[in-house]
Structure formats: C-alpha cells, structure tokens
Amino acid sequence: MPRTKRERTLLLIAIIVVPIILIVNYLMPSGHAAAGARALLPLSQANFKRDIETRTMARWREEEQQMQPQIARMSYDLPADQVVPQMVGDLQRIATRAGVHLGEIKPVKPDLLPSGAGAQVPVSVRFRAPLQPNTIRFLYEIEDPGGKFVVEKMDITSGDARFQTVEASAQISVFTRSTVGVAGTKGEHQHESQTSQNKS
What we know:
Largest sheet: 5 strands, antiparallel
Distance between the termini: 45 Å
Strand content: 15-25%
Low-confidence stretches: 30-35, 189-200
Number of domains: 2
CATH topology of the largest domain: Alpha-Beta Plaits
Number of helices: 6
Helix content: 40-55%
Mean pLDDT: 76
Order of helices and strands: HHHHEEEHEEH
C-alpha cells in the first residue's frame, strides 16, 4: 500500500533533522581546531566563509523551528510502551464511532527511525464489519490528516456474503520522538549489556 502524504512527511523530517544538526556542528568547529583551520585562509576568505556558514545555520535553524509544531502535532513525545495504551484507546473510540468491533489489537515491536531521532510504533488490528459504511469510515478516520495514525498495511478479504461483511487486518503506526526502550538505540544496547552481565 503506498505511503500517505503524512507518513512521507514524517519520515522525511525524521531522516533530515538529525543530519542537519550534525552538518551544522561540522560547519562550526570550535576551539584550537577552528583557529588553526582559519589561520590557513586569508582574512577576506575566512570572513566570507564565516558569513556563509552563519547564514546557512540561521536558515536551517529557522526551518527547524518552523517544522517543530508540525512534528509535535503528528507525533508523540513519549516512550513507545506509553504510546501503545493511547493508541489502543484511540483506535477503540474510532472503531465505536464507525460501528466496527475490533476483534484483536496486538502491539508490534517498535522500530528506530533511520535517523535515530525517534521511533515508529505499530499495532496490528483485526475485525469483521460491513465494507460500507463501517470499514470505509473506520479507515477514513484512521487516515484523518489531523490525527497521528498511519495505515502501514491493509488486507481485506470476503467475510460473510449474507451479511455483506469483510474480514480486515491492518498494521497501524504512530511516530514518537522518544527512543526510550526501543531496540537499536545506544541506551537500549547498554541496558541489554548490563542485564546480561547481571544474569551472569
């Protein structure tokens, strides 16, 4: 299933923001290294280079500040294990409004985003309901641009022809800016290492 505009935006933001910060840090060396590097350039060239770096940093900072409200609106800032109960509650409320009974809501292992700036927190759901209007309304509300949910995978098969229902399963995700407890983060590896040492 193709990614939604909201998902592409979040992934793009997550992939870009941290590298930008790293580039900014690279462009602004400090201490003796900066003094030594600039001593090799004529004063006019050093000033020109500094002006470019200053303007570039200012532009990046402005763009990052402009993105922050969007990032905050479309993602959480909680550890994955705290996000899941909120997801379950929100999904159940949406399902109730749509006339869908969720037969299963199962948490899936969260994944660290490529940039390391956050995590994707998925759950899988299963249900049987009429395609129209119930299932369509449920999916429409899940994909509401004002919300945080993203439908990653969707599978709809014939259910009961007599009652005109379908069997549906989906993987639904949200994003969090927290990486606490997510495998692949530095802290998680340290925690696992300490746990292994304690067991031994």
